[in-house]
Design goal:
Strand order of the largest sheet: 1-7-4-5-2-3-6
Number of strands: 33
Strand content: 15-25%
Largest sheet: 7 strands, mixed
Helix content: 25-40%
Bound molecules: adenosine-5'-diphosphate, zinc ion
Distance between the termini: 50 Å
Shape: globular
Amino acid sequence: MSSLELQSTEFALEVQGGRFVRVILDDSGSRVFDYAVPEGVEVARGCRVRVPVRRRTVLGTVLEVTTATEASGVRFVAEVLKSDAGVNPALLELAVWMADYYACPLENALRAVLPQVIRKLEMTHQERQAVRLVEMPADEILASLEKRAPLQLAALRALEAEPGLMAVADLAKRTDASHAVVRALEKKGWVAVESQRVDRDPTRHEQFIEAPPLALNAEQEVVFHKVCEALVPRAPDAAAPKPFLLHGVTGSGKTEIYLQAIQRVLEQGRSAIMLVPEISLTPQTVERFKSRFAATQHEVAVLHSHLSEGERHDEWHRIRSGKARIVIGARSAVFAPVEKLGLIVVDEEHEPSYKQEESPRYHGRDIAVLRGFMERCAVLLGSATPSLESYHNVKLGKYDLLTIKTRVDDKKLPYIRIVDMRMESKKQSAIISSKLLTALQQRIERREQSILFLNRRGFSTSMLCEKCGNVCQCPNCSVSLTFHKAANRLVCHTCGYIALAPTKCPECKDPGIRQQGTGTERVEDVVQKLFPKAVVRRLDADVLQRKAAFRETLAEFRVGKIDILVGTQMIAKGLHFPNVTLVGIINADLGLHLPDFRAGERTFQLLTQVAGRAGRGDVEGEVFVQSFTPFSPAIQFSRHHDFEGFWEQEIDFRRQWNYPPFTHLVLLSIRSPHQGRGELSAQTLAKRIAEDAPPGLILSEATPAPLEKSHGQFRFHLMLRTKSVPRLSRYLRAILDKLPFPEDVIVTVDVDAYQLM
Ligand code: ADP
Ligand code: ZN
């Protein structure tokens, strides 16, 4: 359907027995109005429309098509946009559900399911002029061209050699034939010029070599078989298949199963979405997919946050038009507009980065499960360290568990040694224990590679004056500033505030100010000094600021040019380097003592994942975990690769204290630049919620957030726990819509919150 320009926007009072649409306007706080639809105009739920509002027209989305309206003074829709620029009905339904569940404005939910670049119609397809041979002139003419117009002849010969459309620019590159030459040929009727749509393909500069499927081993075969059973296309009235949770140790060949299951779905003429955490959406991952499907490479679309607007626009349209049937992407790719969805895979389903930390605060994995249910397609969640939520769902019978206990080719899981740093700390090099030092030495001698992991960037974590005890603090946040040595700056990792590093205490002017704590920059520094001949490199968000550095460093590491790679969680996930035989975790306690009930779970997951980077090749891997609390359960269970053991003790704790997965945690966050107003608002809100609280609600007191101040705002938390989210969400929205908060107080609702700081 082409876009329809409708003239009449005047009042349509007389429309009777006509059709109306309920339209939510863009960028207007979720306001909804009814409009009449002129006869003969096609419109459906999810269509994007232009509608009159006072003297302007604005864009909006059709929520419903009806035959009646109660509104008076209804006007006509001004334009119905091409249907391929709209929200498909399944996604519209998902948006409505999200607004309800996550207690957010419908407008925000709609923004999530339709990318901004499509919504705003600011981008168009890129076109280029292309030329095609129509008829080769007779030989005498060609002969005469040789002297008279050699460029014309060259162009004709080039087009003859390569039948089909050739971009005019390409032709010019090959033969020096300019546009004028092409026009001359066109005039004579020998060639035809057309405009051709070109997709801005984020991987256009790369070549992918076909990688055929691997023969599955026995354990993989069992899993694959079960998944395939759920891939059988369903009758329209059949129930959705139960989601799977694939618990397979690191390096057990989960990705191979994803690839083959997706292949199966493609063969059925359907599509698949593969979600991976943004951080592991590395060139390596993309390459693996593009190579497997190299023969039909154009069927793979990639969505991530580093795409240009043009690329995002084109990838979205390739998906929407059905040209691309495999979508691989981070969190938001769960909203990819694929039709005939056969499978959604969520790799590393436990990853907190699936949770969006701004409205709508949805969880990509949960949405995947819901979308699978709505569209009755298979959902496969995979992890070496499943989230407690998902594992709980297995125990409740909501998900089916699939397990792979051994690594591919019976490679051993790495041997994990815990180093008690209390015994080490008195020695001078307290960052690297003597055991880890020896192990690093060995790897360098044997020309094997090592990874050193520390989830904190910068050089030192704070600067402390030894005389007056002053610690350099961020003026906007309640955190100390991190010293970055290379830049010689103090940086706030919360708000990005930057200051020159002081040479003396800013308070008492004593020169005895010193650096405390360790970040990756210092680890790199220390290790380089310990092994002057080794090639040491670092990968963290600071390095990433230089574009392409991530890629380059990974590529160098892969070909063995780097001996020791130091990094943050950026290197913990999904990377596969066969020559890495040693992983050192510099400080396993970071994160373990945070005021967050998931601290243990996260530590267990992180340690297991990082350890999983070791020994993926022929040589067995070894892991050193340095800790000051070596007997904490998260560390001990990860040491023995004992997920079940960890689960048992952790789930007890959750049950006892009514934490998720036994309840849903809803976090209300109240922020204000004015401490008193923030606190009072939080207390008022707590009181109001308690008044008429739905049964079973556990409401904690209003407290200052663990991160009390951030970006110049004082922060307060109200933690709610419930068994029934939708009811609580509606209750909260009703309260928040009515309670008048001071203008500088911001209240946000985070359903199934992960970020508790
Ligand atoms: P996971 O996703 O569980 O970490 P991968 O799928 O990345 O594991 O597999 C780890 C390595 O083993 C990869 O290099 C992969 O190519 C290889 N692999 C996976 N399955 C097989 C198989 N059936 N036969 C041989 N190699 C395999
Ligand atoms: Zn700050």
